[in-house]
Amino acid sequence: xxxxxxxxxxxxxxxxxxxxxxxxxxxxxxxxxxxxxxxxxxxxxxxxxxxxxxxxxxxxxxxxxxxxxxxxxxxxxxxxxxxxxxxxxxxxxxxxxxxxxxxxxxxxxxxxxxxxxxxxxxxxxxxxxxxxx
Length: 133
Description:
- By secondary structure, this protein is mainly alpha-helical.
- The chain is built from 6 helices and no strands.
- The longest helix has 24 residues, at 3-26.
- The chain is globular.
- 32% of the residues are buried.
């Protein structure tokens, strides 16, 4: 599989995750809205990494850390607003081994935050798509 095919694979699952975030919003599962937003952006960024680096995607979940590995090759710097969004999304990465953490995040995630994060994620997703080679 070449870099373009790998990108398309990551794009497909990122789009699926974004659709899942929308389904979670409809079912009022606020934590899972933002978790799926995080997953969608992480996967799209990993796909872009493959296009820019032609290397295996890093096995990390910090979106900004992944981007930092190819940011120098981007046509424009990433805005502080986008960097902050990615930082916030990364805090919603859920590691299934820590159920107490999931419960705490679930209590703190509101409908308004889930709605806001989904809207901002869609904007960032669209922007990230402009970065593909």
